[in-house]
Amino acid sequence: MTVSQLYRQVRDLFRDAQIELPELDAKLLVSAALGISISDLMLRGDDPVSETKSATAKTHAEKRLAGMPVGRILGEREFYGRRFVMNPATLEPRSDTEALIDAVLALSVPTQEQLFCDLGTGTGAIAVTLLAEMKRSRMVAVDLSFEALSCASENADLHEVSDRFLPLCADYASALAGAKSGVFDWVVSNPPYIRTHDLGMLSPEVIQHDPVLALDGGVTGLDSYVRIIAQAEMLLKSGGRIALEIGFDQAGAVEKQLRHHSFGAIEIVKDLSGNDRVLLACRQ
């Protein structure tokens, strides 16, 4: 079997199963199994494939057909042009969250030294990306899961920002309660915001493979925001900013919480689909 034949075989299986993006998923899984780039997948179409690598590709395909997302199969996902490894304790980074990165960078000077706190860091996608883009900034990355923090630290090493990356295992900012207040320039977070009763409406790819801890935002979906915003009021220096990813219908409720805790200059940022995605605010 050649590279092209293997790719077409997997692609056709995905088409028959009505996978949403059969060509892309086939390219990603087959190229990973063969240890080559997607471009080489096309350029080396006539190369023979060993039985071992063919079997690996078919195993990947079987997992995809069973509903496992490509990122979970490969154990990694691209975010903001960088590769991030994942583990079972972390949410899979998604392109919608890149709107938060863009929003923070638009209000920052890349060469400026700033102190960030990422609450619920997961893979560290937000934290590591901001450090990679802002070469003089530092980050306290907090997560309740030690396994998730281990993954985030691995990603910090991968992208060579570990010297400015401080992982902290805690329930949001609880471990910082005794620290000096008003020291951070930014608090950023992509917290759980799915209403508990809506979890069953999520696609099987999400609910069966992403950790519920990173999805469940309580009865109203606002539990995490209530805590994070109250803590951010203490953590941020005067003029410091907060950036929160939100659900498409949560802007009004989260904005109310921000105003209750004396935040102003509130701005809603939409994602590429036109949905409300990020709330920015400034501590007055």
Reading the helices and strands in chain order gives HHHHHEEHEHEHEEHHEHEE
Any idea how many domains? 2
Q: What would you call the quaternary organization?
A: single chain
Major β-sheet profile: 7 strands, mixed
Computed structural class: alpha/beta
Q: Quote the average pLDDT.
A: 95
- Which outline best applies? elongated
Unreliable runs: none
- What integer value in Å does the Rg equal? 21 Å
CATH class of the largest domain: Alpha Beta
Strand content: 15-25%
Number of strand segments: 9
Could you say what the CATH architecture of the largest domain is? 3-Layer(aba) Sandwich
Fourth-tier CATH superfamily name of the largest domain: Vaccinia Virus protein VP39
What does this 3D model show about the protein?
This protein is an alpha/beta fold and 284 residues long. It folds into two domains: 66 residues, Helicase, Ruva Protein, domain 3 (Orthogonal Bundle); 208 residues, Vaccinia Virus protein VP39 (Rossmann fold). The protein contains eleven helices and nine strands. Strands 5-4-3-6-7-9-8 form a seven-stranded mixed β-sheet, sandwiched between helices. A two-stranded antiparallel sheet has the order 1-2. The N and C termini lie far apart (65 Å).
